[in-house]
Amino acid sequence: MHKFSSLALASVLTVIATGTINALRRLNAVEQLWQTQYGVTLLVKLTLVAGTLAAAVVSRRRLHQTRIPLSSVRLEVALTVAVLAVTTLLTMTAPPRHAAEPNIQDGHGAGPAAATDAVQMPLGDQGNALLTIVPATTTGSHLHLVLADGDKRPLRATHVTLKVANPGRDIAPIAIPMSVLDGAWIANYRFPFPGLWKVILTVDGIGPSAVVTAAEISIRG
Q: Quick check: is 36 in a domain?
């Protein structure tokens, strides 16, 4: 019991360190915690984390009293599973666009456009990939890629390769290294030119062979 209690507490602290801080950085204002789907999901996660920590404290106290903390350990298990489930849901929810991002005039003077772009790419029978670019400008972008099956459940890929190309400027595909964080694939990249860019995604480990898909994104100047 003591070993499991310590392991559960360590797992929760790891979740807090690696996920919650990063999630909070994606919010631009406190109000977004209850005004956006991303913020509400994050609040639910924080509440579950607090409950798990409280259950862990109760378990440790009972152990020190030489009592068997069976009920509190069971609660720790249930809450830990719930934290992991909500964390998965959080990675599949697009973060709110930063209010500080300016509205950009497009190249033809058609009016302001949101400096964010998101595209959904099919992965055949395996599901879909959602790529979000924030901001979608040449000032530097954060790329957030989530893989999900047809039932919106996360797909665990062994590796993804993302390339961007700009045929209009004769720019051949450029590979963007991506890393995994909380079940999502992320990267930072600065698009050198505005315009219509082609993204080419290769996903390994979700089927018998690699899945290749593509889409177009619009980058503002």
A: yes
